[in-house]
Amino acid sequence: MTETAATPQGIPVITADPFSPENLTEPHILHEQLREAGPVVYLDQYKIWAMARYEQVNAALKDWETYSSASGAGLSNFRKEKPWRPPSLLLEADPPAHTRAREIVGPILAPPAMRAVRAPFESEAAALVDRLISRGSFDAVSQLAEVYPLKVFGDAVGVPEEGRENLLPYANMVFNAFGPRNQLLENAMSKAQVVQPWIAASCAREALRPGSFGAQIWAAVDAGKVPQEWAPLLVRSLLSAGIDTTVNGLAASIYAFASNPDQWSILRSQPSLVKQAFEEAIRWESPVQTFFRTTTREVEIAGVRIPEGEKVLLFLGAANRDPRRWSDPGRFDIRRNASGHVGFGMGIHRCVGQTVARLEGEIMLTALANRVERIEFTDQPQRKPNNTLLAWSSLPIAIHTV
Ligand code: OVV
């Protein structure tokens, strides 16, 4: 159980562990407690600070000068502990280095670049939905949400088809590694060791299909914009951040619609709501629940002083359900305008791949809505605990056509 106590300085102290399997798989009760405790709270177990209200989370994400990423976007402080892998040039960097990396990857994933991948994304979605309809009932995690990004994003990045399933244990490791060294991280590490050579090999120039996102990164680096050694690390960012996020974004959408059949009917009758619906699923479920920053100076928020060099945990998922910002936030409502949610972050580090994620969501939901009249659970959905992601291990569903 959780308690809130006030320190002499009036800072709410939270004793609950946000990284316990229970809080990771059922986070909303803790999130409410964190938001209601105050604009800034202290997490006693980890001796860190946290924000869970929309206003403060949004402001901190935008203020990269105060809330640095260069000490890591996880609990571990890279100035005090050696990172488990060379830091990401995008996620775990500040300007000016971050700006240079972002200038390489940004244009490769920008809206105009999506024109080249739309057709293959659409035909793969149609083919997959065909197969799933003929099956009738299936697990929407292993047979849909994992299959689609591995195929279309894997093809777009240009990695070999053989061994792509390695991306799942790798991402599981990456996202657990932002949290504490708990049992989840230990398990993820032990499963991910064997896939590291495949990941490293897939970041190399020779592994990447000509014209792919990965090959375009190498081409930009060849053009002399950044050091050669940056290319494999930038490709690694796509492989780290592009799969498990979209797997759980798609899983979130399926879960949302299977548990809200009225919303599926609305989407079926108004297919133009599809982009808004995917955005709402991201707000409602927030597949990426948290990221950390580190203060670069002493900072005062709503009367609370956080010293310099302190880790601050930002609860994106809690901000996305803050009743101060959203009306009836726990309701999945595809007619709502979910824009402004922080599920893709905000500010200079906002998700660089969000165009790809949105394209996958739009296309997969459209392919389903074109054919499927009803989605229902055939068994209990199962959460998969992860130190960063609100993830599913199993979503057993049946789909019915007319
Ligand atoms: C946003 C994100 C998550 C995980 C890994 C990375 C980025 C990366 O840049 O490696």
How would you characterize the overall build of this protein?
By secondary structure, the protein is an alpha+beta fold. Helices cover 45% and strands 13% of the residues. The protein has 17 helices and 14 strands. It has helices at residues 21-25, 28-37, 54-62, 97-108, 115-135, 141-145, 147-157, 167-176, 183-192, 196-202, 213-222, 230-241, 244-259, 261-269, 274-285, 316-319, 354-371; strands at 4-6, 12-14, 41-43, 48-51, 67-68, 137-139, 290-295, 299-301, 304-306, 311-315, 372-377, 382-384, 391-394, 396-401. A 7-stranded mixed β-sheet has the order 1-2-3-4-10-7-5, sandwiched between helices. A 3-stranded antiparallel β-sheet has the order 6-14-11. A hairpin with a 4-residue loop joins β3 and β4. The longest helix has 21 residues, at 115-135. The protein is globular. The protein starts with a strand and ends with a strand. The model has no long low-confidence stretch (mean pLDDT 97). The chain binds 3-methylbenzoic acid. 3-methylbenzoic acid binds next to α12.
Task: Indicate the proportion of strand residues.
Answer: 5-15%
Helix content: 40-55%
Structural class: alpha+beta
Output the number of helix runs: 17
Distance between the termini: 47 Å
Count of distinct strands: 14
- Overall average residue pLDDT: 97
Query: Could you name the ranges where pLDDT drops below 50 across 5 or more consecutive residues?
Result: none
Named once each, the bound ligands are:
3-methylbenzoic acid
Strand arrangement, major sheet: 1-2-3-4-10-7-5
Specify the overall morphology. Answer: globular
The major pleated sheet works out as: 7 strands, mixed
